[in-house]
Amino acid sequence: MFIVPYQILLRIYFPGFYRYIWRMPELPEVHTTVTGLNRVLRNKKILDVWSNYNSAFHKNKPNIKNVHYFTDFKKKVFGATFLKAERRGKNILIHLSNGSTILIHMKMTGHLLYGKYRYVPKEKIWCAEEAGPLQDPYNQHIRLVFNLSNKKHLAFSDLRKFGKVFVFPTKELHALQDLSTLGPEPLEKNFTLEQFEERILRRPRAPIKSVLMDQKIIAGIGNIYSDEMLWASSIHPLSRSTCIPKAFVKLLFKEMKIVLANGISFGGDSDSDYRNIDGDIGEFQNKHHAYRHTGEICFKKSCGGIITRLVIGGRSAHFCPKHQKIFT
Predict the structure, then answer these.
(1) 202 in the same domain as 156
(2) Dist CA 276 CA 163 (whole Å)
(3) How many C-beta atoms lie closer than 10 Å to residue 158's C-beta?
(4) How far is CA 190 from the centre of its chain?
(5) pLDDT tens, 86-111?
(6) Could you give the number of structural domains in the chain?
Protein backbone atom coordinates (compact mmCIF):
# COMPACT_ATOMS: atom_id res chain seq x y z
CA MET A 1 0.00 0.00 0.00
CA PHE A 2 1.32 3.45 -0.96
CA ILE A 3 1.49 5.87 1.96
CA VAL A 4 1.40 9.58 1.22
CA PRO A 5 4.01 11.49 3.28
CA TYR A 6 2.41 13.80 5.84
CA GLN A 7 4.25 16.81 4.34
CA ILE A 8 2.37 16.31 1.06
CA LEU A 9 -0.97 15.97 2.87
CA LEU A 10 -0.28 19.21 4.73
CA ARG A 11 0.49 20.95 1.44
CA ILE A 12 -2.81 19.76 -0.05
CA TYR A 13 -5.22 20.18 2.84
CA PHE A 14 -3.56 22.81 5.03
CA PRO A 15 -1.34 24.96 2.77
CA GLY A 16 -1.36 27.90 5.18
CA PHE A 17 -0.34 25.73 8.10
CA TYR A 18 2.44 24.09 6.08
CA ARG A 19 3.93 27.47 5.21
CA TYR A 20 3.57 28.52 8.80
CA ILE A 21 5.63 25.74 10.38
CA TRP A 22 8.70 26.14 8.19
CA ARG A 23 10.13 29.42 9.49
CA MET A 24 13.64 28.95 10.79
CA PRO A 25 15.17 31.86 12.72
CA GLU A 26 17.92 33.46 10.65
CA LEU A 27 20.97 35.56 11.46
CA PRO A 28 19.08 38.61 12.86
CA GLU A 29 16.87 36.48 15.11
CA VAL A 30 19.81 34.48 16.47
CA HIS A 31 21.82 37.69 16.93
CA THR A 32 18.91 39.25 18.85
CA THR A 33 18.67 36.17 21.06
CA VAL A 34 22.39 36.18 21.82
CA THR A 35 22.29 39.88 22.69
CA GLY A 36 19.49 39.15 25.14
CA LEU A 37 21.31 36.19 26.69
CA ASN A 38 24.40 38.30 27.33
CA ARG A 39 22.18 40.87 29.01
CA VAL A 40 20.62 38.49 31.55
CA LEU A 41 22.75 35.35 31.97
CA ARG A 42 26.25 36.53 32.83
CA ASN A 43 27.48 35.11 36.16
CA LYS A 44 24.29 33.12 36.74
CA LYS A 45 24.89 29.55 37.92
CA ILE A 46 23.04 26.47 36.63
CA LEU A 47 21.40 24.68 39.59
CA ASP A 48 19.35 22.13 37.68
CA VAL A 49 18.16 21.22 34.18
CA TRP A 50 14.82 19.72 33.10
CA SER A 51 13.72 18.42 29.70
CA ASN A 52 10.82 16.45 28.27
CA TYR A 53 12.53 15.72 24.97
CA ASN A 54 12.51 11.95 24.39
CA SER A 55 12.79 10.70 20.83
CA ALA A 56 13.43 7.10 19.81
CA PHE A 57 14.80 8.47 16.54
CA HIS A 58 17.62 10.15 18.49
CA LYS A 59 18.58 7.05 20.49
CA ASN A 60 22.39 6.92 20.87
CA LYS A 61 22.75 10.37 19.28
CA PRO A 62 24.71 13.16 21.03
CA ASN A 63 21.89 15.59 21.76
CA ILE A 64 19.36 16.01 24.55
CA LYS A 65 16.55 14.29 22.64
CA ASN A 66 18.40 11.12 23.61
CA VAL A 67 17.40 10.71 27.29
CA HIS A 68 20.65 8.93 28.13
CA TYR A 69 22.67 11.77 26.65
CA PHE A 70 20.55 14.27 28.58
CA THR A 71 21.58 12.61 31.86
CA ASP A 72 25.21 13.19 30.93
CA PHE A 73 24.37 16.71 29.70
CA LYS A 74 22.98 17.61 33.14
CA LYS A 75 26.13 16.41 34.86
CA LYS A 76 28.36 18.42 32.53
CA VAL A 77 26.53 21.73 32.99
CA PHE A 78 25.45 21.44 36.64
CA GLY A 79 27.08 24.06 38.85
CA ALA A 80 28.66 25.92 35.94
CA THR A 81 28.33 29.66 35.53
CA PHE A 82 27.36 31.40 32.30
CA LEU A 83 30.24 33.42 30.89
CA LYS A 84 28.98 34.72 27.55
CA ALA A 85 26.95 33.81 24.49
CA GLU A 86 27.88 34.25 20.85
CA ARG A 87 26.48 33.42 17.44
CA ARG A 88 27.95 31.39 14.59
CA GLY A 89 25.65 31.15 11.60
CA LYS A 90 22.26 30.15 13.00
CA ASN A 91 23.82 28.52 16.06
CA ILE A 92 23.82 29.91 19.60
CA LEU A 93 26.97 29.16 21.61
CA ILE A 94 26.76 29.57 25.39
CA HIS A 95 30.17 29.38 27.07
CA LEU A 96 30.36 28.10 30.66
CA SER A 97 32.89 28.56 33.44
CA ASN A 98 33.85 24.87 33.49
CA GLY A 99 35.34 24.90 29.99
CA SER A 100 32.19 23.64 28.28
CA THR A 101 30.00 25.23 25.62
CA ILE A 102 26.31 24.58 25.02
CA LEU A 103 25.25 24.70 21.37
CA ILE A 104 21.61 25.50 20.65
CA HIS A 105 20.13 25.50 17.16
CA MET A 106 16.57 26.80 17.38
CA LYS A 107 15.56 25.09 14.12
CA MET A 108 12.02 25.79 12.90
CA THR A 109 9.98 26.74 15.95
CA GLY A 110 12.40 27.14 18.83
CA HIS A 111 13.21 30.24 20.87
CA LEU A 112 14.78 30.90 24.25
CA LEU A 113 12.92 32.69 27.03
CA TYR A 114 14.08 34.18 30.33
CA GLY A 115 11.91 34.71 33.38
CA LYS A 116 10.40 33.08 36.43
CA TYR A 117 8.61 29.78 35.82
CA ARG A 118 6.91 27.16 37.95
CA TYR A 119 6.48 23.47 37.23
CA VAL A 120 2.97 21.99 37.31
CA PRO A 121 3.48 18.29 38.16
CA LYS A 122 -0.08 17.21 37.36
CA GLU A 123 0.14 18.50 33.81
CA LYS A 124 3.91 18.06 33.51
CA ILE A 125 4.32 21.54 32.10
CA TRP A 126 6.13 24.77 32.97
CA CYS A 127 4.18 28.00 33.30
CA ALA A 128 5.56 31.53 33.38
CA GLU A 129 4.71 33.28 36.65
CA GLU A 130 5.25 36.75 35.26
CA ALA A 131 2.50 38.62 33.46
CA GLY A 132 3.28 39.97 30.00
CA PRO A 133 4.74 38.55 26.82
CA LEU A 134 5.91 35.29 28.40
CA GLN A 135 2.19 34.43 28.51
CA ASP A 136 2.00 34.59 24.70
CA PRO A 137 0.65 31.21 23.41
CA TYR A 138 3.71 30.96 21.15
CA ASN A 139 5.83 30.81 24.32
CA GLN A 140 3.99 27.92 25.99
CA HIS A 141 5.75 24.92 24.41
CA ILE A 142 8.52 24.50 26.98
CA ARG A 143 10.84 21.55 26.28
CA LEU A 144 13.98 22.51 28.22
CA VAL A 145 14.50 24.54 31.40
CA PHE A 146 17.65 25.70 33.20
CA ASN A 147 17.09 26.58 36.88
CA LEU A 148 19.34 29.54 37.68
CA SER A 149 20.96 30.81 40.85
CA ASN A 150 18.85 34.01 40.86
CA LYS A 151 15.66 31.91 41.12
CA LYS A 152 14.80 32.57 37.49
CA HIS A 153 14.86 30.25 34.50
CA LEU A 154 16.13 29.97 30.96
CA ALA A 155 13.46 28.08 29.02
CA PHE A 156 13.38 26.74 25.47
CA SER A 157 9.98 26.82 23.77
CA ASP A 158 9.85 24.51 20.75
CA LEU A 159 6.44 23.71 19.29
CA ARG A 160 7.60 21.14 16.72
CA LYS A 161 10.44 19.69 18.84
CA PHE A 162 13.00 20.25 16.07
CA GLY A 163 15.53 22.11 18.24
CA LYS A 164 19.06 20.82 18.71
CA VAL A 165 20.97 21.14 22.01
CA PHE A 166 24.23 19.55 23.12
CA VAL A 167 27.36 20.36 25.11
CA PHE A 168 31.02 20.01 24.14
CA PRO A 169 34.48 21.11 25.37
CA THR A 170 35.00 24.76 24.41
CA LYS A 171 38.54 23.96 23.22
CA GLU A 172 37.02 21.81 20.44
CA LEU A 173 34.97 24.72 19.10
CA HIS A 174 36.82 25.14 15.81
CA ALA A 175 36.80 21.41 15.04
CA LEU A 176 33.09 20.94 15.69
CA GLN A 177 31.35 19.60 12.59
CA ASP A 178 28.29 21.78 13.11
CA LEU A 179 30.48 24.88 12.81
CA SER A 180 33.54 23.93 10.76
CA THR A 181 31.60 23.64 7.49
CA LEU A 182 29.94 27.07 7.77
CA GLY A 183 30.80 29.86 5.37
CA PRO A 184 31.95 33.31 6.50
CA GLU A 185 29.79 35.71 8.48
CA PRO A 186 28.20 38.28 6.10
CA LEU A 187 28.25 41.15 8.61
CA GLU A 188 31.90 40.79 9.59
CA LYS A 189 33.88 43.91 8.68
CA ASN A 190 36.61 41.81 7.09
CA PHE A 191 34.14 40.08 4.77
CA THR A 192 34.81 41.95 1.54
CA LEU A 193 33.09 42.28 -1.82
CA GLU A 194 35.87 40.21 -3.39
CA GLN A 195 35.31 37.41 -0.89
CA PHE A 196 31.56 37.59 -1.42
CA GLU A 197 31.98 37.21 -5.18
CA GLU A 198 34.37 34.31 -4.72
CA ARG A 199 31.93 32.55 -2.39
CA ILE A 200 28.84 32.81 -4.59
CA LEU A 201 30.84 31.63 -7.62
CA ARG A 202 31.44 28.32 -5.86
CA ARG A 203 27.99 27.34 -7.11
CA PRO A 204 28.01 28.98 -10.56
CA ARG A 205 25.04 27.11 -12.02
CA ALA A 206 22.73 27.25 -9.02
CA PRO A 207 19.97 29.90 -8.62
CA ILE A 208 21.29 32.81 -6.59
CA LYS A 209 18.42 32.34 -4.13
CA SER A 210 19.74 28.86 -3.28
CA VAL A 211 23.35 30.06 -3.18
CA LEU A 212 22.58 32.77 -0.62
CA MET A 213 20.81 30.25 1.61
CA ASP A 214 23.62 27.68 1.41
CA GLN A 215 25.22 27.80 4.87
CA LYS A 216 28.48 26.44 3.46
CA ILE A 217 28.70 29.47 1.16
CA ILE A 218 27.63 32.23 3.58
CA ALA A 219 26.41 31.66 7.14
CA GLY A 220 23.12 32.84 8.56
CA ILE A 221 20.97 33.81 5.56
CA GLY A 222 17.62 32.08 5.08
CA ASN A 223 14.37 32.38 3.20
CA ILE A 224 13.11 35.75 4.42
CA TYR A 225 16.27 37.79 4.16
CA SER A 226 17.39 36.29 0.84
CA ASP A 227 14.06 37.40 -0.69
CA GLU A 228 14.48 40.90 0.69
CA MET A 229 18.08 41.43 -0.40
CA LEU A 230 17.37 40.13 -3.91
CA TRP A 231 14.36 42.44 -4.18
CA ALA A 232 16.44 45.41 -3.03
CA SER A 233 19.27 44.65 -5.49
CA SER A 234 16.89 44.04 -8.45
CA ILE A 235 18.12 40.48 -9.06
CA HIS A 236 15.73 37.68 -10.00
CA PRO A 237 16.09 34.68 -7.62
CA LEU A 238 16.63 32.28 -10.55
CA SER A 239 19.69 34.20 -11.76
CA ARG A 240 22.92 32.22 -11.87
CA SER A 241 25.77 33.76 -9.91
CA THR A 242 28.23 33.32 -12.76
CA CYS A 243 25.95 35.38 -15.03
CA ILE A 244 25.20 38.27 -12.69
CA PRO A 245 27.05 41.45 -13.82
CA LYS A 246 29.64 42.78 -11.38
CA ALA A 247 27.62 45.96 -10.81
CA PHE A 248 24.68 43.87 -9.59
CA VAL A 249 26.95 41.64 -7.47
CA LYS A 250 28.28 44.80 -5.83
CA LEU A 251 24.72 46.01 -5.20
CA LEU A 252 23.69 42.62 -3.77
CA PHE A 253 26.69 42.68 -1.42
CA LYS A 254 25.67 46.13 -0.21
CA GLU A 255 21.99 45.25 0.21
CA MET A 256 22.85 41.98 1.98
CA LYS A 257 24.55 43.92 4.75
CA ILE A 258 21.80 46.55 4.89
CA VAL A 259 18.94 44.04 5.04
CA LEU A 260 20.59 41.90 7.73
CA ALA A 261 21.51 44.97 9.79
CA ASN A 262 17.91 46.19 9.51
CA GLY A 263 16.69 42.78 10.64
CA ILE A 264 18.81 43.13 13.76
CA SER A 265 17.79 46.73 14.43
CA PHE A 266 14.10 45.75 14.26
CA GLY A 267 14.63 42.88 16.70
CA GLY A 268 14.28 40.05 14.19
CA ASP A 269 11.30 38.71 12.27
CA SER A 270 8.27 37.22 14.04
CA ASP A 271 6.31 36.28 10.95
CA SER A 272 6.06 32.87 12.63
CA ASP A 273 7.03 31.58 16.08
CA TYR A 274 10.15 33.60 16.81
CA ARG A 275 10.18 35.61 20.04
CA ASN A 276 13.10 37.23 21.86
CA ILE A 277 14.18 36.12 25.35
CA ASP A 278 11.62 38.45 26.97
CA GLY A 279 8.86 36.77 24.96
CA ASP A 280 8.35 39.82 22.72
CA ILE A 281 7.96 39.77 18.96
CA GLY A 282 10.39 41.37 16.54
CA GLU A 283 9.25 43.97 14.02
CA PHE A 284 10.98 43.07 10.77
CA GLN A 285 7.88 41.25 9.49
CA ASN A 286 6.36 44.73 9.11
CA LYS A 287 9.22 45.79 6.81
CA HIS A 288 8.96 43.11 4.12
CA HIS A 289 8.98 44.29 0.50
CA ALA A 290 8.76 40.89 -1.19
CA TYR A 291 8.48 38.08 1.31
CA ARG A 292 4.86 36.86 1.57
CA HIS A 293 3.53 39.76 -0.52
CA THR A 294 2.38 37.48 -3.35
CA GLY A 295 -0.15 39.17 -5.64
CA GLU A 296 0.52 42.65 -4.28
CA ILE A 297 1.86 45.66 -6.17
CA CYS A 298 5.63 46.02 -5.85
CA PHE A 299 6.75 48.57 -3.25
CA LYS A 300 9.52 49.88 -5.48
CA LYS A 301 8.73 53.41 -6.62
CA SER A 302 7.37 53.64 -10.20
CA CYS A 303 7.69 49.86 -10.69
CA GLY A 304 4.08 48.68 -10.81
CA GLY A 305 5.04 45.01 -10.94
CA ILE A 306 3.16 42.29 -9.05
CA ILE A 307 5.00 40.21 -6.46
CA THR A 308 5.16 36.58 -7.55
CA ARG A 309 5.94 33.37 -5.70
CA LEU A 310 7.69 30.31 -7.01
CA VAL A 311 9.46 27.34 -5.44
CA ILE A 312 13.23 27.10 -5.86
CA GLY A 313 15.03 24.13 -4.38
CA GLY A 314 12.04 23.31 -2.22
CA ARG A 315 11.83 26.81 -0.75
CA SER A 316 9.50 29.69 -1.56
CA ALA A 317 10.89 32.71 -3.39
CA HIS A 318 8.97 35.99 -3.50
CA PHE A 319 10.04 38.55 -6.08
CA CYS A 320 8.96 41.19 -8.57
CA PRO A 321 9.31 39.89 -12.15
CA LYS A 322 9.28 43.43 -13.48
CA HIS A 323 12.25 45.12 -11.83
CA GLN A 324 14.19 42.03 -10.68
CA LYS A 325 16.29 41.09 -13.68
CA ILE A 326 17.08 37.48 -14.51
CA PHE A 327 20.67 36.66 -15.49
CA THR A 328 21.14 33.15 -16.89
Answers:
(1) no
(2) 16
(3) 23
(4) 23
(5) 999 999 999 999 999 999 999 999 99
(6) 2
